[in-house]
UniProtKB/TrEMBL annotation:
Record's protein name: Peptidase U61 LD-carboxypeptidase A
Residues annotated as catalytic: 110 (nucleophile), 201 (charge relay system), 271 (charge relay system)
Organism this protein belongs to: Marivirga tractuosa (strain ATCC 23168 / DSM 4126 / NBRC 15989 / NCIMB 1408 / VKM B-1430 / H-43)
Positions of the LD-carboxypeptidase N-terminal domain: 14-129
Pfam families per the UniProt record, alphabetical: Peptidase_S66, Peptidase_S66C
Domain of life assignment: Bacteria
GO BP term, pick one: proteolysis
Assigned protein family: Belongs to the peptidase S66 family.
GO molecular function terms attached to this record: carboxypeptidase activity; serine-type peptidase activity
Keywords: Carboxypeptidase, Hydrolase, Protease, Serine protease
Domain LD-carboxypeptidase C-terminal intervals: 170-284
Length: 308
């Protein structure tokens, strides 16, 4: 069971950090302005717009900003400006003591998967959602979904696919970017997948990399005891079925063929143009029937202060 931080109200403070890759300042400011128009106060941590080669700043600078944000006593959310690469350089040095006294929503995805996993290990849910740099690129409807999620209005998800595997499951929703999940195996931020509803997304990988990463999850016994598997967007792949012989869906079905849990494909989260926020760590019901799959949260987030 994970605890949820308090959802945001108008005029609450959101801290913006760049714990991974170097950012596009104009896009980040555009995203921040969107949150300001929604009624939130925004502060940028000191190194948000720095750059050190591919990183958002030097490792120690990014660590300093992230620790400052975790320890902050007033902020209600920490919004990651971008993913990319870099969070795992600093994640093991974080001190979560003050965060537990003043928990706040951590928001992001992709490379930020490792940070969401660390928050879960420390007992807290987080928001798997567009990074702030991606906010201006979302359509108006999906910008609204993200803003609504900050106040606890979280959307249940539906998806259709001919690859669905039927069944019903309940459990905590965990997961994120496939590469980052594989990268956590054998490290302090490795999660226990048993009994969980796992969600996956990926971007810009050849199909053989996806096959290899799923095989690694399987060999590490991460797939066999799941309650269910929710598959999001696998976008901008550098190979297609004509080259590798299998699609993403077929690779996933192959690696999970010996397991009885439901699998649902084509959910609207990942690196696509429009993505729906997910509450990482929430308790969910997951049902797949024919071509339709449904992911449903078990409580009304906006009205409850109970653990999720």
């Amino acid at each position: 069971m994970s605890l949820k931080p308090t959802f945001l109200k108008k005029n609450d403070l959101i801290l913006v950090i760049s714990p991974s890759g170097v950012v596009d300042e104009a896009l980040v400011v555009g995203g921040a302005n969107g949150l300001k128009r929604a009624g939130y106060r925004i502060e940028f941590t000191p190194n948000t717009f720095n750059a050190h080669f591919k990183f958002g700043a030097r490792h120690q600078e990014r660590l300093s900003d992230l620790q400052f944000a975790l320890d902050h006593t007033e902020a209600k959310a920490i919004y990651c400006a971008r993913g990319g690469f870099g969070i795992t350089h600093i994640i093991d040095a974080l001190d979560w003591t003050q965060f537990k006294e003043n928990p706040k929503w951590i928001i992001g995805f992709s490379d930020i998967t490792a940070l969401l996993n660390a928050a879960f290990q420390n007992g807290f849910s987080s928001l798997h959602a567009s990074v702030l740099q991606g906010f201006p690129k979302l359509s108006g409807a999906y910008q609204n979904k993200l803003i609504e999620s900050l106040s606890g209005d979280i959307s249940n998800l539906q998806a259709e696919s001919t690859f669905h595997k039927p069944g019903k499951a309940s459990g905590q929703l965990i997961g994120g970017n496939l590469s980052l999940l594989v990268h956590q195996i054998g490290t302090p931020t490795e999660l226990d997948y048993a009994g969980k509803v796992l969600f996956l997304e990926e971007v810009a990988e050849p199909l053989y990399h996806i096959d290899r990463m799923l095989l690694q999850l399987k060999r590490a016994c991460k797939l066999k005891d799941l309650a269910g598997l929710v598959v999001g967007q696998f976008t901008n792949l550098s190979e297609d079925k004509s080259i590798y012989g299998q699609s993403v869906e077929e690779i996933l079905v192959f690696h999970c063929q010996d397991y009885d849990y439901p699998i649902g494909f084509n959910f609207p989260f990942g690196h696509g143009d429009d993505i729906v926020p997910l509450v990482h760590g929430a308790d969910v019901d997951f049902e797949v029937n024919g071509r339709e799959a449904n992911l449903k949260y078990l409580i009304n987030h906006a009205e409850s202060n109970l653990p999720i």
